[in-house]
Amino acid sequence: MAVPFMPGIEMGIMIMMMFGRPGILLVYLCTLLALTLSFLAGRHLPPRILARVFDWFHLDRARDLVMDLAPLGSEKRLHLLLEVLRPGSSLSSFVTATSSSPSF
Hints:
By secondary structure, the protein is mainly alpha-helical. Helices cover about 75% and strands about 0% of the residues. The chain has 2 domains: about 1-45; about 45-104, no CATH class.
C-alpha cells in the first residue's frame, strides 16, 4: 500500500485485532469497496469533474495531469503515462522536481 493510506492500514490492523475473524472480513470487504468505488469514479466521471474535485482539494498537479490526459485517446494517454514513469525521462525529472516542494 502507499504512504497516504498508512492511517487506514493501522486502523484496519486495529479492527482485525479487536474483532478477530469478523474484523478481518470487515476490513477486507471495506478495502474491496473502496478500491471499486475509486476505480468506478476514475473510469466513469468526466475529467472536468475530477479536475474540479482535485482543484477543490488544492491538488494542482493532479488536476493538471487529468486535464492534460482528457483530450487524448487511450493509446496516447498510456504512452504519456509510461513516459512519465520511465526513469530518466524529461517528464519524470519534471514530476520529481515539482513533487519535492509541497504546495499547501
